[in-house]
Amino acid sequence: MKNLLTIFMMATSILAIQAQDKSDNPLLQKWKGPYGGVPAFNEYKIADIKPAFVVAIKERLAEIDAIANNPKPPTFENTIAQMERSGKTFRRVSTVYGIFSSNLNSPEFVPIQSEVGPMLASLSNKIYQNKKLFERIEKLYNSPQKTKLTKEQQRLIWLNYTNFVKEGANLDAASKEKVSEINTKLATLFSRFSQNLLAEENGQYVVLNSEADFDGLPEALRKAAMTQAKERNLSVMGCIGNTRSFVDPFLTFSTQRELRAKVWKMFVNRGDNEDEFDNKSTLVEILQLRAKKAKLMGFPTFAHWNLTNKMAKKPERTLELMESVWEPAVEQVKKDVAAMQSMVDKEGGNFAIAPWDYRFYSEKVRKEKYDLDQNEVKEYLQLEKLREGMFWVAGELFDMQFSPINNVPVYHPDVRVWEVSNKTTGKQIGLWYFDPYARKGKRSGAWMNAYRNQEKLGDEVLTIVSNNSNFIKGADNEPVLISWSDATTLFHEFGHALHGLSSNVTYPTLAGTAVARDYVEFPSQILERWLETPEVLNRFALHYKTDEPIPHKLVERIGQASTFNEGFSTVETLSSSLIDMKLHLAGDVIIDPVVFEKETLAKLNMPSEIVMRHRIPQFGHIFSSDGYAAGYYSYLWSDVISADAYGAFTEGEGPYDKKVAKRLFETVFSVGNTTDQEEAYRAFRGRDPKPEALMQARGFASPSKKK
User: According to DSSP H, which parts of 77-149 are helical?
Assistant: First the structure.
């Protein structure tokens, strides 16, 4: 009788909380409209976010308590499956919150983010430290009866058990309390780090005062600099904003060395200016708390703890891979710098190549060595045409079709939406939102989001994904031209979107991109390789004035120069990966991160002409959340896999080999986290990946050959 009363009271509590869905807060409403419901972006307001979370979190905790206190013995259905069905209101509110945080961040949003972060950390603590819930999961994990379940169900039990253990479910009460306090503090620090970085990106710029200051800049960048000055209400000719989309092209083409140095210093010093937005003390506190948390969990360092559910498993394996690539990359940089220095000397320049010279003289060497001008290539790389090219590749590989729609609300006028369907059967797959342009309040970089994961638990739920970039918007009716590097990034992020759209699983927790962090970049990185295929270039690399396809000879020169500057890009990224891992292996002993950065790079023999892609005080990947912390190596790890995987196509009938594409879809893109990722890759390739493919793709001599 007592058990029945308990269930009744909990059910009544949930219904009472859910009744608040009928309030005036639009964030609490179920998504309505076509495609199984879509976010009502036209109704959401910043002021609604915190009140919505208050309700959603109460509902989430009531749902969890109902599962944990179920008097019946735990079964997959009444515990794991019920967990999958719960949390819908919370997920909807969290999705909209994340969109505001990344794309619509404003002064009004800052205090909301500071308050919501600890609320979310507290919720996570309460779920993972719910003793009764963990006992139910543990019983299912240890039950011999689980072998009667499907492989996907067994995987979901394993994942839940593993996650709970990792988050401290087995700790004693005192340790759990300490972990909770750490997680709450970290949430506040993550928000502070992100807001500081965004403030410096939004608030800093370099002024262009005269026509000479524009010398060498492509027309699109000239116009963007002028527009930027107008948007900032500056009475100057133009200015260069503090984002990569402005900085990289300026460093590549500006002939003004002093201005290049000024722009470079502005960009690399983000978060390190000894001002109100300085991030050094914040990140040191993050590192200390992470180290403390890892020790509470029984691990020597945060890196050891965080890699327990990754493919690499141990930090030593990541270091072994990174160091094997580091030396040949540095050797290549030395050769490239020598060629650049020779050019400087020939021109009578009385200086050694500095970091703000690297891109400029690298481009000159590219022109001289390969007769390849990035600006010439750029005239054929129209953003909209390349988007069409991505759609075409998705159709050729995975039978997908993208159709523009305008019957769903968007959060900004720049955002457009496409319906995705199977082009053979016509079956709807999901929606793809595209937000391509930079603006104030939008974080820098490029990324993919899943607004809603695919599932087949009950009615089939369509996935909703987005790709977000920071291209500089052109004038009205003018095509946006992008660099080859940006085009590669565009395809990369679309690979993440296809990973989400391809998902064909039952349970949402296992859907789409919800795989190990050092595997999730594999589907995105392999898709990059289709950009350079003749089929894409001939159809979609069209001149922005004449609409003529890119000349065959230019394509050949692009191919010949395909590994040019790989030394730079590898060292730039890999130095960040090595610093990330070494930071988290060092843990709480770091007092001054800038000194640590300098000394560690010196030990690595970091070329003085290159700076890390993400210096420590601006390393949002690892300090705005735990996402890539001790995990930035994932890009290299996944690139080994993607380089090896693409070999399956080249060894077959080429990039558009239907049989290989079908196998890639069935074993990688569609399976989510329903199987161990190493097993998934073996199912595709028939073996483990070989690192030699990466060395060849980057034009480096492999360690074995060097010996």
Answer: 82-85, 88-103, 109-128, 131-142
The label of the residue with tokens 């565009």 reads 490
Query: How far is 104 from 98, CA to CA, in rounded Å?
Result: 9
Three-state SS at 531: coil
Say whether 208 sits in a helix, a strand or coil.
Answer: strand
Contact 426, 413 (CB under 8 A): no
**Confidence (pLDDT) at 706:** 43
Within 10 angstroms of residue 345's Cβ, the number of other Cβ atoms is 12
| Interhelix angle 315-346/355-370, nearest 10 degrees | 70
Cross-strand bridge partners of residue 466: 433, 449
Beta bridge partners of 450: 465
Dist CA 68 CA 53 (whole Å): 22
- As a whole number of Å, the CA-based R_g of the chain is 26
- Asked if 315 and 308 touch (Cβ cutoff 8 Å), the reply is no
pTM: 0.91
pLDDT in tens, 507-527: 999 999 999 999 999 999 999
DSSP state of 437: E
Q: Which of 261, 279, 118 is nearest to 196 (CA)?
A: 279
- Rounded to whole angstroms, how far apart are CA atoms 550 and 193? 43
| Residues in contact with 193: Cβ distance below 8 Å, sequence separation at least 6, in sequence order | 271, 279, 282, 283, 286, 620, 623, 624
Q: Give the pLDDT of residue 49.
A: 97
Dihedral angle at the C-alpha atoms of 67, 69, 75, 77, nearest 10 degrees? -20
- Residue 62: HSE in the Cβ half-sphere, 13 Å Cα cutoff: 22
CB neighbour class for 406 (10 Å; exposed up to 12, middle 13-18, buried from 19): exposed
In single-letter form, the type of residue at position 180 comes to: S
Residue 348, both tokens = 């009578």
In order of 25, 101, 190, 386, 624, the CA distances from 112 in angstroms are 16, 10, 14, 37, 16
Which residues are CB-neighbours of 321 under 8 A, at least 6 positions away? 633, 636, 637, 640, 691
Q: Which residues are catalytic?
A: 493
pLDDT for position 705: 45
Amino acid at 571: V
Among candidate residues 195, 185, 250, the one with its CA nearest the CA of residue 626: 185
Which pair of structure tokens corresponds to residue 368? 């001289």
By the 8 A CB rule, do 669 and 684 touch?
Answer: no
Percent of the chain with pLDDT over 90: 89
For residue 77, the 8-state DSSP code is I
Cα separation, 89 vs 469, in Å, equals 28
**pLDDT (0 to 100) of residue 701:** 67
pLDDT (tens digit per residue) in 277-320: 999 999 999 999 999 999 999 999 999 999 999 999 999 999 99
Distance CA 574, CA 455 (A): 36
